[in-house]
Amino acid sequence: MRRLHRCYEKLTDECTVTDASSLEEVQRTTASSALRVIEQVQRILDSSPSDEAVIGTRDIGHLRTLISIVFKWGTEPLLAAVMPLWPLKSSKSRSRFQDISSAGNTYSQLATMASKLLSLVFPCGMEGKVAETAITTTLIHRHLVDLLKPCVTLGWLPGSIATPATPVQDNIRPLVMRLLHILPSAQIIVALGGLLSWSPLPLHVHRACTTLLSRQLLRPDGVRGLCAAIFGEEKSAEDETSLDKLQHVAKILIAIPAGIKPEEYFTKVIPRILELLTANVPASYRRASAFAISRMLSSDGSYPHAALASSILLPMLHRPLLEYTSDDTTTELAPSRALDTLVALVSNTDPSPELMTMLLSPVASALYSLKYHLDRTKTSDPTLKESVGGLLSTWGRIVSAEHGIDTFWRIVDGEGGFWETDLEGNIKRVEKPNKLPSLSMLTPVDREKLDELDINANILDLYPDPAHFVQFLQSIDRNDIAAELFVRLLEAYRQSKTRSEQDPTRSLLLLQLVLQMQTKLSGDATSGFLKRPSHILAFIKHTLESLDADKDKPSERLDVPDEQLETLRIVPSMNEEDDDAADSDDEHEGANTVSPDDEMLETTVNLLLSILEANEDLSARTDPILNDIFVLLEPLSMTGSDAIRPLAREARVVMTARLASTSGASTSSKSSKKGDAEDAQETYQKALKLLQDPIMPVRAHGLLLLRQLVSPGGGKRTTGVDARAPTIDRALLPAILSIFLQCVQDDDSYLYLNALQGLAAMVDSFGKEVLRGLLNDYSGKLDGLQTSTMTQQDLDVRIRVGEALGLVIKRCGEALGIYVDMLVPVLFSMVRSAYLPTTLRTSALSLLGDCVHTYALAMLPYVPDLTSALLDLLQVEGVVGDTVPEKAGKELPAKTEQQLAEGRKKPEHARRPKPAPSMDSLPTSTNSKFPPLRRAALHFLALLIRTTTQHRAKITLGYIASTDQDGIVRVMAREAVEELGELERAL
């Protein structure tokens, strides 16, 4: 009390407080006195022209104490006294104030005190400058929340709840708005946040603070100020990020203030959020910004303005990477800035598949193009290269298969554009690259380097570079995408071969991509896309069916030059005369040519072999579609081109072995036998596994094991009475026979000879059952209609089966009599069929000759018919030779000499005589005048006669004629010897 009275004496004013006054009155009076003292000191400090401090540290401490007293004993009790006049945020009911006159007095004192406090900051009013004193600094930095409490409460009082005793203080609001405008956003947001945590909080104060806080976010530094208010401005805030704080920041940023259109709000706030991602700020700020963006782009329906926010935010990120970079492009729209923002956003948010798809899928093709540019530019920034690669890797591992395939296909279609890097390392997208094509200049030095080029070198500058594209596809390890993309590439390549207007470089690109994927993605570590064979097998079947259907249609493009292919021609074509000269020796239509269909077939069959190699358990038993593919491969193995036939045969052998392997495995699992049968089964499985190997010598060894298995005594460890009978299960014979018959068609001599030996061994071991099958393959389906369409390949297969039959016949020896009734009628019927190719009839005659040579006695029932038929054939089909030419010394007619002279003037290829038709040049011809048929008939007759005129017959008949006891026998033996001699003399 004494201090208070002394203060009033110094102020020359009368103190109204006595010893009978209450504590509240004493405190309120003390606060008023302190405010008066502060006002006088402020006027003195503000009027001092000196820049030096006119008060000491102790005096500043006293002033700070007085300011604290003003708020502690002045404004706070007054606010608490008038608080029941208004609705509170926590309660809808309004507390009734008992003494209306007292409330009006209290409200008036509070308004006066608030106005005086604001005058300390703005001594010259609204238009004046801000006081730059220690008092002002203390008010702003230490008591801003305390200052805003009465000012906002009175200045934003709604007229609906104001009364004559408690009017709205309109003079306070402009000063508060000016104060909020000049202070940093972070400080204002902290103060308003502290004001919102005040309890009890009047409802109109809460609304006012929310509005003021939203306006702070719209300021240029509003978003950064929000983060600074929540996380702090020190670098130590980097490790203090919690989910609650992130959610609090996101909740404030995505809340649209009242009275502002959503589009206007997002247009102002989103650029500042994106700017914060690349600014030099604590990591917590970037995490908060990324978290807020993820909430704005939420696709789960939790945010009603997600579509609007996406339409504003995503173009800011994508447009710089999708549009050409002009010279007047601002920094905010530069591709480098957009790329840095994307990297920061992806690095500081959860890797949600939906979010990554939304952010990166639209620009994935551009990012890949940029990655390709950076990878092949030696001076590229390593950090930039790593950033682009990281974005693409993140996208590739998270994106759904559907979006991933669509994006990769856009890359295959050439989407992505071209990129350049300037001297400062900035990237920009350009319409065309400013460099010459790789083959535009070919110097001698370049020509020397061509021999040293890598097999994966992109010498035609295709985009995407097949090797680079497949390497990136391999790096993301998405087998589901690779499998679907592989099938789509194959289908596109197949379609490109059927379109005449298709760009040839496009077909080349598709083929290179297929080959690269088949080569690099078929290893043990990354063979997953081949481990998903269902779609690829369906494509293989569809391709084989479509190509087979195309072959049945007449060609509509005979001798029509392809204008697109002409653009790739680098060697001039020969003239017509040179063409005639060069092609004179090649009379076969389509000889040594490779059609587009053959290329597609070769790729398809190679793909089938790769799938079978990658999936050891894949067979027709597990995937029935292989049965259809097996049937479709049969005509290719017979009538395909030179490149297709061996591949088709290999695929059929592998599929047959695979099916037999699974069948054998199921059979052996049900059996409990031991010993020899078990060893034979193990050998059988081993042979089938070797037959599926892509290396030819390994397959040949598997065929050798099968031959040994079906040979007499094969698979046995002991000998006995039945040592010749193999122990292989007879249920496996059809599969083994099919394998041998398919390998007989192989061009490799080792496989072919082993197959022949195997067929002979099977007949030796299993008799008529196997021989009947061989005869059926040799002579079956030879009616007139099918014979007229027989191809050279089909004929070659039958001839090779005939060689196997010849081997079987020679190995039979005197046991040929068991099979002669099965062999001779069939072979004799083939010899008499004039509609069969002469080559096949000649082969049948040779087999009949082998029968006579092996065991003539078994042929006795058929000798008369055979002899008569062959003599008739020689008589009918004989060809009379030309007359003997005149002697060389005789003069030629003048006309002939003139013709010879004219012939010498003609080109050499025109003078060359046309070769006569022969069985070698026309193997499928039915011309029975070819000499090999008559030679085979004469060979048969000679063998027949030779066997009947053997020296052994003479000795035996002579001995009987001399020693037999029966006279009639001796006479008949002598007559037989005489007739045999006459027959020899006649021949």
From TrEMBL:
Span of domain RNA polymerase II assembly factor Rtp1 C-terminal: 684-815
Family note: Belongs to the Tango6 family.
Gene Ontology BP, a term: protein secretion
Domain TANGO6 HEAT repeat stretches: 217-411
Positions with biased composition (Acidic residues): 575-588
Name of protein: Uncharacterized protein
Spans annotated as Disordered: 570-597, 887-929
Membrane spanning residue stretches: none
